Amino acid sequence: MSTLTSGDYVIRAIRPDDWPLVKQLRLDALRDPVAHLAFLESYDEAASRSDAFWQDRAIGSGEGSSAARQFIAEASDGSWAGTLTVLIEEAGTKDWKEGTVERRQGHVVGVYVRPGHRGNGLIKALLDAGVTWAWERDAQRVRLYVHEENARAQGAYRKAGFVPSGEIVPFVRDPAQWELELVVERQG
């Protein structure tokens, strides 16, 4: 998949030379008021990473990677309005919570849309691109986890077709809180 145009945005995979923008968008995401509910790293952790880390990240999840793909929404003025990454999880491997992955699936992480671009369907366009990419890699389903208190994100994911699987896991940053697994199953 090369690009997908959605209204005033172009949804595309990042390229290796995009690494400075990948870094900046991640740092901006970690400054968001709900970052503590949405991301597992802090702003300080991300800001302390070397340029080599960000370069490797752009190579490892950019165009041409078959294990991960980071998508961005590029606005008509060239700015980046949002992002998400899809990781491919193989059946029989262990996932982030040490559970066994039962079938080949995509796992959506790092979802962020800048405040001025929220509420207009952009998150659905990003998710559509990520899910399509996972289907092209023979994923049987795509999942994501969302904090129990992140109602806005839950609503956006449900509008994009994700439904609760029934799995609830402790939030990594505070085991007294919970995350819900939402999934979309491959049809046919």
List keywords for this structure.
8-stranded mixed sheet; 29% helix; 34% strand; 6 helices; 188 residues; alpha+beta
SSE diagram, text form:
Layout lengths: L2 E4 L2 E5 L5 H12 L4 H4 L4 H5 L3 H10 L7 E8 L4 E10 L15 E9 L8 H15 L4 E7 L3 H9 L3 E9 L2 E12 L3
Parallel strand pairs: 5-6
Antiparallel strand pairs: 1-2, 2-3, 3-4, 4-5, 6-8, 7-8
Helix pairs in contact: 1-4
Structure in a nutshell:
The protein is α+β, with helices and mostly antiparallel strands.
Report on the structure:
The chain has 188 residues and is an alpha+beta fold. It is 29% helix and 34% strand. It contains six helices and eight strands; from the N terminus they run ββααααβββαβαββ. Strands 1-2-3-4-5-6-8-7 form an eight-stranded mixed beta sheet, with helices on both faces. α1 packs across α4. The mean pLDDT is 93.
